């Protein structure tokens, strides 16, 4: 694995850890949905994950990543179709 590819993997891992920290002790969707800061922060983390997965796949075509199209698609929706984000979907992923 190249240094660049490793950076993408680390970015993904750090974004996942950030999501866990952001969500903290929230237990139900409504607690998440009514907290704008947490929603925006989780969105950002998912965008980072999607971008890092896309860049990793462009750099390393041989490695299989499950649900790669959905991960990158979620990133695209967050970045380009921000007004149609389904927060229940984000919560389900979390």
Unreliable spans:
none
State the secondary-structure class: mainly alpha
Order of helices and strands: HHHHH
Strand percentage:
under 5%
Count of spatially separate domains: 1
- What best-fitting shape do the alpha-carbon axes yield? globular
Helix content: over 70%
Radius of gyration: 14 Å
Main sheet? none
Mean pLDDT: 96
Number of strands: 0
Describe the structure in brief.
The protein is mostly helical. The chain contains five helices and no strands. The mean pLDDT is 96.
Tell me the layout of helices and strands.
Blueprint: H1 3-23, H2 29-33, H3 36-59, H4 68-80, H5 87-93
Helix pairs in contact: 1-3, 3-4
What would you say this structure looks like, in words?
The chain is an all-alpha fold and 94 residues long. It has one domain. Helix content is 74%, strand content 0%. The protein contains five helices and no strands. The protein has helices at residues 3-23, 29-33, 36-59, 68-80, 87-93. Helix 3 (36-59) crosses helix 4. The protein is globular, with a radius of gyration of 14 Å.
Distinctive features:
94 residues, mainly alpha, 5 helices
